[in-house]
Amino acid sequence: MLRFCALAAVLAATPALAKDILVEAGPNAQERLQSALLDAKPGDTVRIGAGRFELTDGLSLDVAGVTVRGAGTDKTVLSFKGQLGAGEGLLVTSDDVVLRDFAVEDSKGDGIKSKGADRIVYKNVRVEWTGGPKASNGAYGVYPVESSDVLIDGVTVSGASDAGIYVGQSNRIIVRNSTAMYNVAGIEIENSGYAEVTNNLATHNTGGILVFDLPALPKRGAGYVLVKDNKLIDNDTPNFAPPGNTVATVPTGTGVLVMAENDVQVVANTLSGNGTANIMVVAYRQPFEDKSYDPYPRDIYIGHNKHGRAGFAPAMPGGAALAQALGGTLPPIFWDGTGGDKVNLTGVADAPVLTLNLALGAGIETAKPQIIALQEKALQKVAARILLPAAMEAAAK
């Protein structure tokens, strides 16, 4: 009898017994959809039908091994315009989850957040605040945090008041084939390690792609971030982040911004129409108490990028006067110069670099601007290519 019960338990957990749970649009969508997420078992697929789901509260999933699948980002729309609370649209706290083929609109808080959810896949998901850029919009569109093995593929986010696509305090990350527009930060990798950000479009954000390491967070970034083959075009939306947010300091017109992170490569990207700079490399310049925190960027490689027009409307403090002194525009690559040789800024000298030679904590008035060429160095691998579990790649097909 005991052997039979054990066998039954094994069979119950196998994909052969997995089922589809279909939720159609219509009355009581909130209750029916949340019930489906609660009732799902590992291996199940919650299929959300075509239509518009008018929701009044956030949704949550805490069952591992579940797929949530809609009929397409233009067909299955979860609208939180009538959301009564201030939380996320959808919160996931379980492992091995696949989210794909649906849209989230107008959540009061973040669009989709996953916390401590390892091996999570976001595929063909759209998150949008339909009223356009506003400080009252949710902070993050797609927001995995404190996770290992994250795949974001074919995602579109618009209108986030912090970052459209954000991955924080995580390791082994791939963000690819996605579009971020009209956010403060288009794509942000923060306090994370071993990330590939490739083949994305970041346009009409305040800043296109940000790679940050910040103090006072539970996890420090491991670095080793590759930013490659992306298009960073016309990032020109005025910064609309609520005051006090870290990204509130990002200058309008930034293509790629690397701050206080180590072992970052910015290669083979197309950058144009970014009024402050196509690429910025800076130290963390705010006061901090964490004695183990290193505020300097370190081992940054820049090369083989295609630079279009840049530096024609610098929005950083003193930028306009500096541009005027340099003939009207700034070079495509900007470095605050803080950290000197410790930064080890190398690459291919395919665009000039403006360095301010600032000391940490010094004001802009102490700048000693100088135009330099990158210290040339052959391209080295940041780290071995990130290979996520095969099941994640299969789920993203």
Largest sheet entry: 21 strands, parallel
Could you tell me how far the N terminus lies from the C terminus, measured between alpha carbons in angstroms? 42 Å
Mean pLDDT, to the nearest integer, reads 93
Poorly predicted tracts of residues: 1-14
- Structural class by SSE content: mainly beta
Estimated share of beta-strand residues: 35-45%
Shape: elongated
Count every beta strand, where a strand is a DSSP E run of 2 or more residues. 33
Helix content: under 10%
Q: Please, how many helices? A: 4
Q: What is the rounded Rg?
A: 22 Å
Describe the structure.
The protein is mostly beta strands and 397 residues long. Helix content is 9%, strand content 38%. The chain has four helices and 33 strands.
Task: Note the topology.
Blueprint (H helix, E strand, L loop, with lengths): L1 H11 L7 E4 L5 H11 L5 E4 L2 E4 L4 E3 L5 E3 L6 E4 L10 E3 L5 E8 L6 E4 L4 E9 L11 E6 L2 E6 L2 E3 L4 E6 L2 E6 L2 E3 L3 E6 L2 E6 L2 E3 L3 E6 L10 E6 L2 E3 L20 E6 L2 E6 L2 E3 L4 E6 L15 E6 L2 E2 L11 H7 L7 E3 L9 E3 L5 E3 L14 E3 L2 E2 L13 H6 L2
Short summary:
9% of the residues lie in helices and 38% in strands. The chain is mainly beta and 397 residues long.
Features:
4 helices; twelve-stranded mixed β-sheet; mainly beta; elongated; 33 strands; 38% strand; 397 residues
